[in-house]
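Two folds, back to back.
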Amino acid sequence: MPLTEPGTVPTALADDATWWRSAVIYQVYVRSFADSDGDGTGDLRGVRSRLGYLRELGIDALWFNPWYPSPFADGGYDVADYRDIHPAFGTLEDAELLISEAAQLGIRTIIDIVPNHVSSEHAWFQEALAAGPGSPERERFWFHPGKGPNGDEMPTGWVSNFQGDTWTRTRNADGTPGEWYLHLFTPEQPDLNWNHPDVRAEHEDILRFWFDRGVAGVRIDSAGLLIKDPELSEVPEVVAPGQHPTEDRDEVHDVYRSWRRIADSYEGTRVLVGEVWVPDAERFAAYLRPDEMHTAFNFDFMSRPWDAAALRTSIDLMLAAHAPVGAPSTWVLSNHDVTRPVTRYGREDSSFAFATKRFGTPTDLDLGRRRARAAALLTAALPGSLYLYQGDELGLPEVELPREVLEDPMHFRSGGVDPGRDGCRVPLPWRGAEPPFGFSPADPAAGVTAAAPWLPQPAEWAALTVQAQEADPSSMLWLYRQALRIRKREQALGDGPMTWLPSEPTALVFQRGDDLVNVTNLGPAPLALPDHDRILLASAPLVDGMLPPDSTAWLHRLA
């Protein structure tokens, strides 16, 4: 049972219906955040022990990657049971305590929902395998006979999001080859059939289960993939809007209208946040109509190179896309899937694309760190909500891990050429001079040692621990804390209008409200600042009164 009355929210959180429009939301990858019991894996008690740190950082909400029971074929995005917590992370009571304790500190909780698929160990899928062809249990998934005389060919040639095939063949009870089942990701993640009423009813009940426990919202994974063409048509060479067989089909909006009605039936504003990879701006905005999702992730900005023209184009594109539906944009530099900014911005190609990730890509970390600092202030100044992936506030770089410790299926399904996403998931360094840097509890004086973290931490992270950075006013952590305090204090920041100001083509200069100006210098030379009466914050010291390259300053000027 929930620890509080189902459907209610603490008074401290109940009086701001539009909190999500300007919120700073911190992404927690539980496995790598903080370990409370010394087994090398982060857990919910570890998060609870660090809530004070998160409050001091200045965030408004926590977004948790999947914390459910899972075989971890895809980092927890293969969910076996939506109404429980993975034993390595704790218990359902731990989750309820975390939601409640965070709320008492003024921090809301957002959880991940993965509606496109479940784990192959989910009870429904195991029942479907046991029931056999033609059974009602199989109708909840996409089981289909194969093509060819003996059914040996896959039903379609659809390509997996993780590269490779999207169909896996089953075996009948007598050992003969059986039907095929669809999985847009790994074979351990069978796709659900969203045309089936059981699937829709189950997910609506899951929403209620967690809203009853006080969560303030859900982030919807792969939100555009739920509906498939029942005719199993191939992907045409030219795809008309809404006609891709597996992506962004028009019927998906019925699902989110239903979910929005459920969210709106609860006290306080419970938000729906979509992971929507849709390149067409108009179709992207359709997910944000007033009766569907509240916000959606902005992947376009995150993927752009460190270039003034490219970033300005993205900013204009996203603001224009959101304007017709009155939704705020979201801004993010990275997440649990993406190369960390310090590393990415130091590369010759500072854009991001999954298809181009390779081992041994060189980077200039000093350059990347300067740009990441500048980007932190730039994104925090843009209108809308801000997402911050754990560790970016410490300036952690991507870690190129030894192949033998990698777990990410993207690495293995690429034939080993893609390093995968584990490099941005390395456990956080909290304190001390050597691994595990306080991630796991240890007391060498008392003979208590912790298990090695599930992914190894670089020794050079000793300079990047929370403890080290709290003592250094020039650190990335100090910069983030100052920026988020100013963002909360200045009414012009967060949701609201933005006006571009005249500038050099290599700069991004815009005004928020009546008196706050952001200046980001992406050019090779120092930049003269516009008139101002004081500097609120800068990512780097001025040089002879000018803003150095790869830097951002927030200015206050008389209205």
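---
second:
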Amino acid sequence: MSHYPPIADHGLIGDLQTAALVSTDGTIDWFCCPRFDSPSVFGSLLDHQRGGHCRVRPAQRPYRTQQMYFPDTAILITRFMTDIGTGEVIDFMPPAGRDSTDTHRLVRMLRCVRGRITFELDIAPRFDYGRRTHTTRLTADGAVFDSGSSGLTLHAVREPGDDQLAQVQVTEDGSLHGLLPLAAGQVRGFVLESGAPGIPMAIPVAEIETMFDQAVQFWHTWLAHCTYRGRWREIVHRAAITLKLLTYAPTGAIVAAPTAGLPEMIGGERNWDYRYTWIRDASFSVSALLSLGFTEEATEFAAWLRGRYQDKGTQLEIMYRVDGSADLREEVLGHWEGYRGSSPVRIGNDASGQLQLDIYGELLDSIDTADRSGLRIGHEGWQKVTELLDWLAINWDQPEEGIWETRGGRADFTYGRLMTWVAFDRGIRLAERHSLLAPIDEWRRQRDLVDAQLWSCGWNERRRAFVQRYDAEVLDAALLRMAQVGFIAPRDPMWLSTLSGIRRELVTDSLVHRYNPSASPDGLSGSEGTFSLCTFDYVNALARAGNLTQARLVFEKMLTYSNHLGLYAEEIGLTGEQLGNFPQAFTHLSLIDAALTLDHAMDASALPVG
């Protein structure tokens, strides 16, 4: 399976409606179009033979590669060093705007830095997850890849007199292969444009350089709104840019990850589609964006959230497509072998039909956070919130699938009850803060019932800890948020005992497992790595508990597990490899939260007493 690069060996580019992964060898091996959740055009990350790719690399062997972002942007630079010269590929996507469109541009600038270099081009689209054939037509100024319902147009970047510079041919399967020799200082390349097949047009070098300058200006202008001035500015900025790249601008929704089917264990079946927006992730996103000063993005995302609970009425789905629709029927791409043979490859997500009661708490917490930041909820929105809480008052005391979307049946999960408590608590706060019409006495009664049940059933006296579910004694890293949401004081002896139990049972050095599948069967075979967002949540809990030395050590260690660009997948494997969908929004949200909490705690500890 040497055809597959490590998951971590990728950078992310995007235009705020879709995104692409670029490996350190210059291959775009994942690109869906026109949206994050659309069928793939390049998908060799999940099947190196049938998935399709767009590769640019030196024809000279051997070569070394380095990859970096242009500072404070989402423009990716992959550098190649050979025995006769140095070159680089600069990849970016111009922002597509706020209106949904089928037209997206993927720019690949090729530049010879020193000496001479010949770039080898290999452009092999495979439309609709490799299920749809296409034709390829060459012209003097580029090429057209036409699958009937969709296509790509390749516009060559060229100057007058370049007619013989590139040597190009088309193979029987519709792939384009070519060689492009460049001398020091020369810039060429191509632009891939999606949508209805068009007419290739030669793009002057000056025009593509202008596109580059405009992209730099866009990202620098956007990042200037960030108010974070803490100790880990570059890391937090990269996490913020990553979240922005995962944002669907027409609605403000943030996808959990731009990928599908990347395994939580190599060769295993835990291969899910994350190209959707979870209510849980959305709620945490609003808080993180507000904490960094990105009020506009938080407002747009809050509006997307409001649309979900206003449209649905009394019960929420746990996830949606970026346009707000909820049809996420799961299917298996049986013709794809999966990343390094990890099958099945799933698209869609059947977990969308699960009952996960924690989402109501996360939703109400985000509404409360937004309200305290000046984003008041309107009258109609408040009416819908009261309907949600009235539904929850009747339905909270029942088994559910839980935050981790297990497929082993419903249970009374402690975290679900915790966030139910949060839902009623935040509803009461909002009503009292603004004298809003609401059955506050009934909500207070329900909150107290949940509170009593958590102490009587969620707390396990023998373990001296809060446990994952009422009928078991296993622990769960989701409960690391108990003190953060205000249910228990962060230095309460019972919470410190729980934290110690999590450290003993779920922490490996500094990395945190979300739970132990062998002790708490989840209906799936195989194991998984440590969960990166849980590690950052552990940092947060340690800092709030006053253990700043350990909190900072865990945080700094976790930073060493990022890839070369500061990006994280969902999990970390036994040998430190990144596993699962990449990059994962939730992990970067938790990184931001941990950095802010740790900064605040360290600043407070440094203040003079008295």
